[in-house]
Amino acid sequence: MSKIKLTFPDDSVKEFDEGTTTLDVAKSISTSLGKKAVAGKLNDTLVDLERPIKQDAKIEIISGEDKEDALKVLRNTAALVFSAAAKSFKKDLHFGEKQANDDGFYVDTDSKEGQISVDELKEIKALMNKIIKNNDKIERSMMDKDKLVEMFKDDPYKSSLISAIESVQIPVYTLDGFVDFGYDAVLTNLKALKHFELLSVAGAYWQGKSSNPMLQRIYATAFYKEDGLEADLKRRAEIKERDHRTIGRDLDLFFVDPEVGAGLPYWMPNGATIRRVIERYIVDKEVAWGYQHVYTPILMNLNAYKTSGHWAHYREDMFPPMDMGDGEMLELRPMNCPSHIQIYKHHNRSYRDLPLRIAELGMMHRYEKSGALSGLQRVREMTLNDGHTFVALDQIQEEFKRTLQLMVEVYKDFDINDYTFRLSYRDPANTEKYFDDDEMWNRSQSMLKAAMDDLGLKYYEAEGEAAFYGPKLDVQTKTALGNEETLSTIQLDFMQPEKFQLTYVGSDGEDHRPVMIHRGIVSTMERFIAYLIEIYKGAFPTWLAPTQVRIIPVNQKLHTEYANEVLSELRAKNIRAEIDDRDEKMGYKIRDSQTMKIPYTVVIGDEEAKNATVSVRKYGEDDSASENAKMFVSSVVADIANFSRKDVTDKSADKN
């Protein structure tokens, strides 16, 4: 019998008979590993335990202790069991795409008789448990592609998936009479599949294209141990509680309606107020730091994006150009940098103009697939807090440090403390996707590193994360749900000044090439507000809250006059206040104010009107306190002025 050589993770090499399986290899190492093994990895590809190995390969045994890969195998198996149970529940069910990942698994389904509803998940789960209790063996075999096409000829989705497979023979899995394909590895039996949950249903376009039919996506998860499932379900409950889409609906902040445009948010008055406060804040802050704010069009000649390199690198993320009929092609801008370059080019520039800081709340458009859209976090239209500084070569490090100091000051005002710095470099092993200038890359990467070292800031370095035109510093924040995302960025760019032939006249009277620094302090308004909604759970600090004070008169006839006096005092100080004069009971009004997460609820009755006081209840507190009305107004002013930071606000309140 022919022999094959298998190389293990420790680089040791052993010979085995051709056709041996991963399970055989695991058992040859130890009996216990044979029992724990759930799959193998051949040349970094997951394979079933019983798949014959026919040639030399690198091998890794995946056991139940190997969290990521082992969970994927378990969830593949759960997806197969779900599909078998769902098919027995709805005989006409068709299946689209499926995926197992680090968040669980999903299966796309379709049925002419009616899609699977969330109420039916309980029945399907019971059928799954029945299959698992029987512990039927999952049979793996190879089938000719032609035969598989014939088997699934009545299922348009399966037929399409089969056609996309290049192999002549395809591995198929049979369970309880149900046949499926498209799994990289599944368990040999169902004993380990005890702890799973069917979570939810949602619509999903076939293959992510809005022009295709809408399928029903079933989300689920599975774990090897009960405590893993319990912790995950607890985490999901927290996600649901903090989900910015749910909070946005409950607090009437924004909505997205696919009927009038998927990925295009509509800002309601409450959400628009939050956005307006942030926009005014960041513009005022940037102006104070020497930025000149501009407005530029959202349309630009396509040639500008060809020159900048965006068309070559991001064409798939850009909307199709608009033919104006006279040879001019206009493009919805995906980036603001070419627009700010035009501002720079509009005048002849001297070294005395540098650094030239240009900023804009610039609207951009990205061609996002429907399946990728999510609330405010992934949209097709967004407004970026964008800025570009044009500097001389010897100004780079100082301007970089200055920009970073601005960023840290903004984070302090928003009480953002959990963040790390990432220096993002090009991938030295894959340089073709980056601007071709080794000297530029080496010099600019060294400059960023030196600036960070000068500031004494901790950072980590990440190759392959740079923009195509230069290295960058990314500020990585932790969301309320523990996920990491890039909130802010500072990028060096030697390329675009070269491509657009930007110059300034130096002190020597000669033309010189400036360097661009791209920076976004608080990302896009959409993503930043989604981040804040989830961090605060919708309970915005006073300075950001849409309504900062709600006044509730105990008796409309007796107390409205004094309530209006207090309202006038508040509004005179630019405090966003309102009177709740609805014909509802007091208890309801107070609960509603808490539900809407208004920072201060003020109740006015006989005592308050008589003594010029207010009864104040802060959001999240059970008790109310009587305060002098004027002192209360002053305390709210202090709260807002100090960006609602408790360590400062509380001291201000004590002084009053």
From TrEMBL:
<feature type="binding site">
    <location>
        <position position="388"/>
    </location>
    <ligand>
        <name>Zn(2+)</name>
    </ligand>
</feature>
<dbReference type="InterPro" id="IPR004154">
    <property type="entry name" value="Anticodon-bd"/>
</dbReference>
<keyword id="KW-0030">Aminoacyl-tRNA synthetase</keyword>
<dbReference type="InterPro" id="IPR018163">
    <property type="entry name" value="Thr/Ala-tRNA-synth_IIc_edit"/>
</dbReference>
<dbReference type="InterPro" id="IPR006195">
    <property type="entry name" value="aa-tRNA-synth_II"/>
</dbReference>
<protein>
    <recommendedName>
        <fullName>Threonine--tRNA ligase</fullName>
        <ecNumber>6.1.1.3</ecNumber>
    </recommendedName>
</protein>
<keyword id="KW-0862">Zinc</keyword>
<dbReference type="InterPro" id="IPR002314">
    <property type="entry name" value="aa-tRNA-synt_IIb"/>
</dbReference>
<keyword id="KW-0694">RNA-binding</keyword>
<dbReference type="GO" id="GO:0046872">
    <property type="term" value="F:metal ion binding"/>
</dbReference>
<dbReference type="InterPro" id="IPR012947">
    <property type="entry name" value="tRNA_SAD"/>
</dbReference>
<keyword id="KW-0436">Ligase</keyword>
<dbReference type="Pfam" id="PF00587">
    <property type="entry name" value="tRNA-synt_2b"/>
</dbReference>
<dbReference type="GO" id="GO:0005524">
    <property type="term" value="F:ATP binding"/>
</dbReference>
<comment type="similarity">
    <text>Belongs to the class-II aminoacyl-tRNA synthetase family.</text>
</comment>
<dbReference type="GO" id="GO:0005737">
    <property type="term" value="C:cytoplasm"/>
</dbReference>
<dbReference type="GO" id="GO:0140096">
    <property type="term" value="F:catalytic activity, acting on a protein"/>
</dbReference>
<dbReference type="GO" id="GO:0000049">
    <property type="term" value="F:tRNA binding"/>
</dbReference>
<dbReference type="InterPro" id="IPR002320">
    <property type="entry name" value="Thr-tRNA-ligase_IIa"/>
</dbReference>
<feature type="domain" description="Aminoacyl-transfer RNA synthetases class-II family profile">
    <location>
        <begin position="274"/>
        <end position="541"/>
    </location>
</feature>
<dbReference type="InterPro" id="IPR045864">
    <property type="entry name" value="aa-tRNA-synth_II/BPL/LPL"/>
</dbReference>
<feature type="binding site">
    <location>
        <position position="337"/>
    </location>
    <ligand>
        <name>Zn(2+)</name>
    </ligand>
</feature>
<comment type="subunit">
    <text>Homodimer.</text>
</comment>
<dbReference type="InterPro" id="IPR033728">
    <property type="entry name" value="ThrRS_core"/>
</dbReference>
<dbReference type="Pfam" id="PF03129">
    <property type="entry name" value="HGTP_anticodon"/>
</dbReference>
<keyword id="KW-0479">Metal-binding</keyword>
<keyword id="KW-0820">tRNA-binding</keyword>
<keyword id="KW-0963">Cytoplasm</keyword>
<feature type="domain" description="TGS">
    <location>
        <begin position="1"/>
        <end position="63"/>
    </location>
</feature>
<keyword id="KW-0067">ATP-binding</keyword>
<dbReference type="InterPro" id="IPR036621">
    <property type="entry name" value="Anticodon-bd_dom_sf"/>
</dbReference>
<dbReference type="InterPro" id="IPR012676">
    <property type="entry name" value="TGS-like"/>
</dbReference>
<feature type="binding site">
    <location>
        <position position="518"/>
    </location>
    <ligand>
        <name>Zn(2+)</name>
    </ligand>
</feature>
<dbReference type="GO" id="GO:0006435">
    <property type="term" value="P:threonyl-tRNA aminoacylation"/>
</dbReference>
<dbReference type="GO" id="GO:0004829">
    <property type="term" value="F:threonine-tRNA ligase activity"/>
</dbReference>
<dbReference type="InterPro" id="IPR004095">
    <property type="entry name" value="TGS"/>
</dbReference>
<keyword id="KW-0648">Protein biosynthesis</keyword>
<keyword id="KW-0547">Nucleotide-binding</keyword>
<dbReference type="InterPro" id="IPR047246">
    <property type="entry name" value="ThrRS_anticodon"/>
</dbReference>
<dbReference type="GO" id="GO:0016740">
    <property type="term" value="F:transferase activity"/>
</dbReference>
<dbReference type="InterPro" id="IPR012675">
    <property type="entry name" value="Beta-grasp_dom_sf"/>
</dbReference>
<dbReference type="Pfam" id="PF02824">
    <property type="entry name" value="TGS"/>
</dbReference>
